[in-house]
Amino acid sequence: MNKTEFENALMSTIVEYISDQIVLRYMDACKQAVVLFSGALIGYQDAVPALNELKKDGWKLTAVLSKAAGEVLTKERISSDIDPDAIYVEGAPVDGRQIIDSHQFVIIPELTINTAAKVANCISDNLLTNMISRAMATGKPIVAAIDGCCPDNQVRAKLGFKVTDAYKARMRRNLEDLRDYGIVLTVNANLCHKVNKVYESSFNFPRPGADKEPVKEVKSGSSCNLAMQVMPAGTSIRLDKKVIGRIDIAQNFNFGTITVRRDAIVTGLARDEAAKRGVKIVKE
Predict the structure, then answer these.
(1) Average pLDDT rounded to a whole number, residues 31-53
(2) What is the rounded distance in angstroms from the CA atom of residue 200 to the CA atom of residue 31?
(3) How far is CA 222 from the centre of its chain?
(4) What is the mean pLDDT of the chain?
């Protein structure tokens, strides 16, 4: 490596480090989510640790309870289990529109059959459905856990859920409609992972150090495949660049192998990123 190549590699590393720190600070500052509780009990026990894990990751959570959630889960239980930064219950004065507009993200940890059906059919007749409608209209990312509304959930079957196949098919179509509307579906056991993934992908740049692990199927009593979205595996790609930086690896991590020129300079941050993501860098 000659002096010019060394200086270029050093400058690239410095610029990457500074830009990474700016990205991290900006993304962390935007971690503000509205958590909408619609009243389902199925999946709630998995939702609690997932939401607390998000708080550990730096998320600020504002909880909003529907009237049913206020009666079934109660404000006191939510406060005790999750300790959100703020909590509102339908029936008290609540400006749902303002809450949505002042937050970056919407999480629905235990979507009910009723709320899923209303949103699927564009019905906004209560606080939560109005807030979900507002979030979709303003392009806010929404992640919803379907444990409480999936007709194939084994827990529901054990509770005596014996509707006809046609009724179950309609419930599945409702979930398909939600997904088509842009709502990301998951299960509560994967909620923390999915929220962070969707949040990172909502930016035009990859988060430094983000891993490439797919969402693994969790045996949570639900056989709904709508919530399981596994990232496609790639093969290889060739980058015809003189200097290979961290961003180059992060933007092409779906490829298991990245081939570079024989004379390419691979920065230390790029090698670290490749190691984190399990990417192999091969020089021609």
Answers:
(1) 92
(2) 10
(3) 19
(4) 83
Query: Which residues does residue 82 pair with via DSSP β-bridges, in sequence order?
Result: none
Tokens 């709904």 sit on residue: 224
Q: What's the token pair of residue 39?
A: 């009243």
Query: Which of 115, 41, 114 is CA-nearest to residue 74?
Result: 41
Rounded Cα distance between 237 and 281, Å, is: 10
End-to-end CA distance of the chain: 17
Per mean pLDDT, which range of 29-43, 188-202, 230-244, 269-283 is the poorest? 230-244
Taking only the tens place, the pLDDT of each residue in 159-196 is: 888 889 999 999 999 999 999 999 999 999 999 999 98
Report which of residues 252 and 107 the model is more confident about: 107
How far apart are alpha carbons 146 and 224 in whole angstroms?
Answer: 9
β-strand partners of 144 = 108, 185
HSE (side-chain half, CA atoms, 13 Å) at 243: 19
CATH class, range 31-227: alpha beta
Domain boundaries, the chain: 31-227, 232-283
- Token look-up 């507009």 returns 101
Rounded to an integer, what distance in angstroms lies between the CA atom of residue 139 and that of residue 134?
Answer: 9
Query: Which 3-state string (H, E, C) describes the chain?
Result: CCHHHHHHHHHHHHHHHHHHHHHHHHHHHCCEEEEEECCCCCCHHHHHHHHHHHHHCCCEEEEEECHHHHHHCCHHHHHHHHCCCEEEEECECCCHHHHHHCCCEEEECCCCHHHHHHHHCCCCCCHHHHHHHHHHHCCCCEEEECCCCCCCCHHHHHCCCCCCHHHHHHHHHHHHHHHHCCCEEECHHHHHHHHHHHHHHCCCCCCCCCCCCCCCCCCCCCCCHHHCCCCCCCCEEEECCCEECHHHHHCCCCCCEEEECCCCEECHHHHHHHHHHCCEEEEC
